[in-house]
Amino acid sequence: MKKDIGLEEVNCPICEESAKHPLHREGSYQMVRCPSCQFIYLNPRPTQESLFQFYQHYLPEEESSIGSWQKMMEPVFRRAIRLLQRCNETGRLLDVGAGFGFFLSEMKAKGWESMGVEISQKGMDYAKDVLGVKVYPGPLEKAHFPENHFDAVTGFYVIEHLPNPMAFLKECYRILKPGGLLLLRYPHTTPIKNLLRFFGIENRLYDLPAHLADFSPGTIQRCLENVGFERCQHMIGSHTLPHHLGKRAASSLFGNLSEVFYYLSFKRFLLPGVSKTVLASKREER
Ligand SMILES: [Zn+2]
Predict the structure, then answer these.
(1) Percent of residues, the chain, with pLDDT higher than 90
(2) What is the CA(283)–ligand 1 centre distance, in A?
């Protein structure tokens, strides 16, 4: 991102509290914790206009990097497909932040009517021209989908990039059919940051300024319930396979370890610091 990027001061995106406790600084960026709801978010953060420009160059350019991106997400996608198909064999799916459209393409092959939303023109073109899947220009709120329209909405590594996560969740709720599923995949970085800081190890794990927040299972659950979602199920949901050998080894090790802890604890213990998946349902009409 360019150095002359526009920044703005914001209140807590979840509860609008203006007080904040500094947590971590990287150049002009600072992660803070809301003293009222404990949400961890970036403040100051890039303005909406700078974010839109940033995402035009966020996805990789070369064919080989696009292939690595697909391989990296494959285990997470496979697990998500299993989770969604456990409830509905087929249906209508929306993937928000669809990237190149790989998840949509896999769901289409499984018989789902699949469409996406994406703000990167490059991602949209690839999804349409190479994979033949339908992707609308984002953000989600501007796509104006009908109410009660989708059987499932997914967002892989999306919610931490959004300036207004509550508006996003409300829109997901509106466009889902009653009983429809929302599946979100998100990083959970703060515990690992704290651990590394304890050992004096510098790192850029927050991925600033791309990530505007760091969710925990607790904050995700509160946000989902505030909007009306129910039956929240938290899980590890597999792990990514980055191209870089060291990162891949770490992701496999901690991903597998966290899955072992999760199942040994009868699906209660979620290892802090690793990415997580949450599945929630829109309330059925009673
Ligand atoms: Zn707050």
Answers:
(1) 63
(2) 25
- Classified as helix, coil or strand, 173 is helix
CB 257 within 8 A of CB 222: no
Cα 56 to middle of ligand 1, angstroms: 30
What was the pLDDT predicted at 3? 53
In the chain, the DSSP E strands lie at 7-8, 21-26, 29-33, 40-42, 45-46, 92-96, 113-118, 134-137, 150-156, 176-186, 213-214, 230-235, 276-281
CA of 217 from ligand 1 middle (Å) equals 15
Q: Among residues 141, 148, 151, which one has the least CA distance to residue 110?
A: 151
CA of 207 to the centre of ligand 1 (A): 21
**Ligand 1 center to 227 CA (angstroms):** 15
Total Cβ atoms within 10 A of residue 253: 11
Lowest model confidence (mean pLDDT) among 13-17, 63-67, 195-199? 195-199
Q: Which of 127, 59, 49 has its CA nearest to residue 95?
A: 127
Confidence of residue 98 (pLDDT cuts 50, 70, 90): very high
pTM: 0.92
Q: Which two tokens stand for residue 91?
A: 């249906």
